[in-house]
């Protein structure tokens, strides 16, 4: 059953839901939560499919909030779906203009009473979820950094404003990795001296994995860039050798510990509906994720400080080199100028003295043809020293 409402309001949508349930012969509700999905027109289809698939495991009232603030006209259109592939209810709320700027006022009357509320942002989300109007309505707040333009930056920004009941699907994607690594550490207890995560450059999951390992093992974890896709390996260094978990094809991983043969283990990449279904199984706070988020923030601050230090050192070094070069150039220029102005004068004095004392008549007067050369003769020592490019006198 599908009911379409144009230019409506929350009260009319709520009344239509009650009427539709009665007409379907199921006035009682078997739903366990309200799931709010906040998205835009571009990511609506994929988010709706993932949420509908997850609702098969968790019957719920699914509120798909599709906002568009670019249009000048303000309004609300709604679609109500009952009994179509899912046991719960699906309400698509398309908000325009000023209504889209206040989605919480539309959503609030449609929440199921006495049941948990979960909010999910498949794409861009506010940095502080608990202060967002939609986030303030929810017991659990879920984001997905991989759905943003800057996954690492988005994850770090929200980690800096982490609040109770918040998580990111980046963390959920790491669950199989974390389970295998935890089992490896339990089976092979040792003192770890270093660790490394290998992944495609700019992968948010790699940064979060490194933060979790650093938090759990107490050692600094390096992130090494590979061709990917995603995370391709994790290595934990001990005195006896490395514990490694590597995955190249997205299906199977190779697991190795010192002194034992290598083994293949299942490590499949999961779809978004599986990830969101996993997160809907718990309504309590994830303390391990919270701790990893705090470490992620510290790692980010360390990286920025190191980058700023390197940049400052490079600038100082360059400036110092330029200053030295400038001083050397000035010194060279001064030497050249001194040579060009002093030595020709001595030559002129010597030439004049010789001409005066050694005239052919022996009279002590200079010959007219041997006196200082006139303009245009081209024979003056001063003219040569000053006009020749880069000329210096050499003794």
Structure description:
The chain has 395 residues and is α/β, with parallel strands linked by helices. The protein contains eleven helices and 14 strands. Helix 5 (151-160) crosses helix 10. The termini are far apart. Residues 301-395 are annotated as: Disordered.
Give the amount of beta strand, in percent. Answer: 15-25%
Could you give the count of β-strands?
14
Order of helices and strands: EHEHEEEHEHEHEHHEHEEEEEHHH
Helix content: 40-55%
State the low-pLDDT regions, or none: 315-329, 335-395
Taking the sheet with the most strands, its summary is:
8 strands, mixed
Given the helix and strand composition, which structural class is it?
alpha/beta
Protein name: Glucose-6-phosphate dehydrogenase assembly protein OpcA
InterPro entries: G6PDH_assembly_OpcA, OpcA_G6PD_C, OpcA_G6PD_N
